[in-house]
Amino acid sequence: MVSNWPGLARAHGALMHGMRLFHDGLRDAAMAPLATVLRHPHGTPSLRLAAAGLLAETYRGRADFLHAEHYYRTALAEADAIPAHERPVNEWYLHYRPRCALGLITVLRRLISSDHRTITTELRVTRDLAGHLAIADLAWQLSAVDGVYRRQCGDLDGAASLLGQAHHGMTDLRGFCFWYPEHVAALRLQVQLLTPSGHALVRRGARALLDDPSVRPWSRAVAAACYLHLQLDRMLERGASMAERIAAAADLSPDGAGHLLETLEIGARDERDPLIDSEWLILRLAWHQATGQTGSVGETARELLEIAAGGPPILGVLRACEARVIVAQRSPAIREDDAVTALAQHGSQALRELRAPIASYGYDADTVAAWACILDTPGPWPGVTGWLGGPLSPLRRLAWP
Hints:
This protein has 19 helices and no strands. The chain is mainly alpha-helical. Helix 9 (181-194) runs antiparallel to helix 10 (199-210). The relative contact order is 0.06. The mean pLDDT is 93.
């Protein structure tokens, strides 16, 4: 046993080096030493758990959910290899095991994985652990993650309730093991936007996030996007004139669409998240279309296709459907841009590959067929009204993070 100490020390040193780089924001540089720990012959399950967990977080931050899933599963397997009698006093286990469970659930959701057994098992096991761990926000984090999962499965009321409870429970805490309270508030805002009865709460919730200087770019961007979705839908619903739309798009006041689009663009530039990047592009395109500006359609569609090619497949389905709905508002005499067609074809292929997993989330054949119809057929479609209603609503429910 004594002869293993030098090797164990080297494995521990590599982990400490990787952790320092990770927490200093140098995540790409941290990957090599962290990977070394996983390969090290003297690495213990505790050290490998931490290394795999940090690698998973790095890949999740890149929206590379397939690699993130692999490393989260690796981390949880290493956690299970720690003897049961050691777990209550093993700081690596107590720190990383719950975080990796929350991360795995998140990436499985984003991939629209049909592995619901793992999702529900990790929710249950981690909730059991929460009563024995000194992690003040873990129970609330589980409620938040469960809430977003329920949203994807169609339970909007349950999702709103859980996210509201989680946000309230986290408000007076300091230090968070997964999501920040503002992140939970932004996710709840999306649920309210998807619920007609919740629309009255969207403006107030968005303003609370946008007016708080401590709120980070991701949550600010989601708040701005939700407010923009709502404003656009209301203008289309009441048949606002072209002059009214142009004035709204140019409005740089705090509630003006022009200011909100700038806020969303800043968030996209800061975060480099496929969701925020594509949300900025699709909403800019929608507002341009609403104000008669059609020159950017092809360029925007090409940018969206590039993002969709590297992001989760369901995001490509959503953006392709939204782009088709936007350009369908133009005169039928205007030929569809080739880039829009290519984006729709990408979305259609992704949808075909996701049909079985989508069904496992409770979406019936008619709902999926409506998305396929949009992707396969240029032009207006029955049942597509406004911007928040029709077949886009359940698709956003499934595709948003």
